Amino acid sequence: MAAGIPVRGGGMPVTAPRPGAWSRFVRGVEWFNTATGYASGIVIVLTSLVIVFEVIVRYVFKWATDWEIEMAVILLIVATFMSAAYTQLQRGHVSIEVLEHLLSPRLNRLRFLVGDVLSLLFCAFVASNAWYFFHEAWADGRVSNSAWAPKLWIPYLFMAIGMTMLALQQLIQIVESRRSHSAEHEAQLEVQNAPWTE
What DSSP character marks residue 90? Predict the structure, then answer.
């Protein structure tokens, strides 16, 4: 059972029905984050191939290289930022699990809520700055200082998209957590107000 998801007495999660537009938004964001999460795995494999190629051509064939390391760095930036939202979707980021066992369910819900809200604010701030840097690099035609000189808007774009999707995923989890808590509360009230029968 995922942490922070309330459950009925019979073990079934308590969830509130999603409105149509919100449900489509959630499904779209989760689909995109899952797709980019798997794509990031492919990008990491490509990064490994680029580094292996660089080692072989430099130390075996003695060729001069000028793009491989920088390409590997850009690919790692892409993989890191584009997989962050998928990791959040799976609740795979580092957390202090011992607190979950020490605190009550109510305090754990509060802990998750505070952590998610603070993370959302931080990610939204980073995303807004990344979009600003992307626009600046695109408008000015900025390139890196290396001989290869790739366009800097490329890594900034992936940073901006990745942090934006991470912020959206956190927003979804905050809203869904509140909705689940409300549904759990309503279910408890229904049980309490139900007529008693033998």
Answer: T
